[in-house]
């Protein structure tokens, strides 16, 4: 369908007949992201709230379909890339974001640490350096004032506001550490999310890191005690590093809870659809 035909379709979006609109909507959604600039152009040129509202909904549906496709592809072929998984989730709320800004911020933090990193540093010293740059110099911290805010789950917003929840903080921490060849990975601890320092990938973690508490170092006994308080077993599922897929699933579950608490059933249902992709 060429531009002229698309413009003709879009010009009919003010038709009051709901059946005609549904047919137009489906045709435009089928066109995919390529039609979005024309829709935005039309939105800006009209002052009629009916077509404006319809255009907004059509754009959102097209963008959501794209996120579904991106997540399916990530699950099949690219789940080793945690940052890409986080950016796909980020696109749900911020589809037009320049994602290079996220990579740039992470690269700057990595460089700040790399300049101070010494070959003979032991694991504790490396973590103290990470903590100093990420939490003290950059100012990343837990969002204790608004723990269930949906923004805590969108990586670019966390880097922008420097406030996040345990899983978003841990993801950023792990991404930076891994780029520096420091073996730190996320652990899917119930009711919390922490990082583990894996000096030996085939053994138990050397220690754990509580990023929500500015990088506090925790022992295995600390984790076992926490699990006992929850009446849960000290199984590998809760004490060993988890997959990137498990991380993104937990990010999505956090978002579902956040949108439930915010009273936004539409967003909750859409995030549930994304979660089902990874659980299928």
From TrEMBL:
<protein>
    <recommendedName>
        <fullName>Protein SirB1 N-terminal domain-containing protein</fullName>
    </recommendedName>
</protein>
<feature type="domain" description="Protein SirB1 N-terminal">
    <location>
        <begin position="105"/>
        <end position="253"/>
    </location>
</feature>
<dbReference type="Pfam" id="PF13369">
    <property type="entry name" value="Transglut_core2"/>
</dbReference>
<comment type="similarity">
    <text>Belongs to the UPF0162 family.</text>
</comment>
<dbReference type="InterPro" id="IPR032698">
    <property type="entry name" value="SirB1_N"/>
</dbReference>
């Amino acid at each position: 369908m060429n531009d002229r035909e698309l413009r003709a379709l879009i010009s009919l979006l003010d038709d009051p007949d709901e059946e005609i609109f549904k047919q137009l909507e489906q045709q435009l959604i089928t066109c995919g992201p390529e039609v979005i600039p024309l829709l935005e152009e039309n939105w800006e040129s009209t002052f009629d709230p009916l077509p404006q509202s319809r255009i907004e909904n059509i754009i959102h549906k097209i963008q959501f379909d794209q996120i579904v496709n991106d997540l399916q592809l990530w699950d099949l072929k690219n789940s080793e890339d945690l940052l890409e998984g986080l950016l796909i989730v980020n696109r749900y709320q911020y589809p037009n974001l320049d994602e290079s800004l996220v990579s740039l911020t992470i690269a700057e933090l990595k460089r700040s640490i790399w300049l101070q990193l010494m070959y003979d540093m032991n694991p504790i010293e490396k973590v103290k350096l990470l903590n100093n740059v990420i939490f003290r110099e950059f100012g990343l911290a837990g969002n204790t004032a608004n723990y269930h805010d949906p923004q805590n789950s969108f990586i670019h917003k966390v880097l922008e506001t420097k406030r996040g929840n345990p899983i978003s903080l841990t993801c950023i921490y792990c991404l930076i550490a891994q780029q520096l060849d420091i073996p730190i990975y996320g652990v899917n601890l119930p009711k919390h999310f922490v990082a583990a320092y894996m000096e030996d990938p085939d053994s138990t973690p050397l220690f754990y890191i509580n990023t929500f508490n500015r990088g506090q170092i925790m022992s295995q006994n600390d984790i076992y005690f926490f699990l006992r308080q929850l009446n849960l077993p000290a199984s590998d599922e809760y004490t060993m590093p988890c997959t990137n897929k498990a991380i993104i699933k937990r990010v999505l579950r956090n978002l579902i809870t956040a949108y439930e608490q915010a009273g936004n059933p539409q967003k909750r249902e859409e995030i549930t659809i994304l979660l089902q992709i990874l659980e299928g």
